[in-house]
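Hi there,

I know you've been waiting on this one. I reran it after we fixed the sequence typo, so this is the corrected version. Both the input and the resulting structure follow.
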Amino acid sequence: MVKAVKRIFICHKCGLEYPHWQGQCTNCQAWNTITEEIASRSVLFSCYDKNTVVSTKKVQNLTSIYLKTLPRFSTGFKEFDRVLGGGVVPGSVILLGGSPGAGKSTLLLQTLCKITTQLKMKTLYVSGEESLQQVAIRAHRLKLLPNTELNILPETNIEQICLTALEEKPRLMVIDSIQVMHMTDVPSLPGSISQVREAAACLTRFAKNENVAVIMVGHVTKDGSLAGPKVLEHCVDCSLMLNGDSDSRFGILRSHKNRFGAVNELGIFAMTEQGLREVNNPSAIFLRKREEMTAGSSVMVVWEGTRPLLLEIQALVDHSMINQPRRRIAVGLPQNRLEILLAVLHRHGGLPMADQDVFVNVVGGVKVSETSADLALMLAMVSSLYDRPLPRDLVVFGEVGLAGEIRPVQSGQERITEAAKHGFRYAILPQANVPKKAPENMQIFGVKKLTDALAILQKMSI
């Protein structure tokens, strides 16, 4: 008698399994995320060589392990290397996600061509979504031909990919994309939770055993998160997101997880007809050059990964025509942080905004999560409220506490140096971040309370 196929139900957001279907996941509280899957045995240890199922690894003492510098190699892009923590680590597994049209395939195709041409390393591009002719057309459009010797494999079967990689022995292999890959022993459709989980686990084991760096391209859902099981992000060494629409001029590469470098590192790329081009001075592209000074705009210095970044923040404060509800919209900043700063501005600054609609936007589409943007946001709202522009050569940063105090932030000296490099002459920052020696042609105002910052604006005729 044929054994019945066992079916399970898995939440594709958190990965929790259920014996039957239900509408809401009890773990992550998400609705309509539980799908039916066919249970299968794990093929983690026998995915690319079915004869080597017996482990030959031995237990070692921690003190006897030889520590050596990881031999990274460059991708050919300084911005890409920065996000990775200094380059690609052999044997690492990298997950690159992004919305359709963001430039994931273009960036990886350019990267492999640079590594093959400049470093003379062997690479392998596995195309599961495009044919060989389509990849060649894009390479011709990017003017990557005929100077490159990149190897391309049109395959979606993981076992065949690993066997081919064993023969070719590449230093870096790109899987485009993990959602279309499948394994023979997993009785599910490509893109399902079981297929993505087993395929990613097999590629991870292959990368560690053969010391081959693997970059997997991942799709995103409607809310911008990576599609597939949550275990996909846990098993990789580095998780990257490339943000940028098809009609945008710039693409932002951000690191969300990195075992070999800093997290939340940022890389800026310009989208041109010949592919992605790295931006060496990202602060300049986010500072909008304007002849007239406008109210409600201020420049702040945020810390992204390992470097300072100058950003422009805009605020629009407008009288509301209705009593309830009040509109508080923040783009690029946490919504709850905006509500807190409005309360602090009312309580300790004496500026009630209960009858005002407030709209906040960070120019350039950058998402700011650190609290060093508090003071710049508050001064931008004050400027918009009174319809008086701030000085164009003024830069502001600092954290604002609930008691109205201005708290210091990390790397204050580097932030000031970055602002002076771009020609800013005035700076309002926490008193604890005031350097002993200010840069030339820059006047620094150290403040301890919110009222001190508002008093400085009055002296500047704001």
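Quick highlight: Residues 406 and 448 are 5 Å apart (CA to CA).

Best,
R. S.
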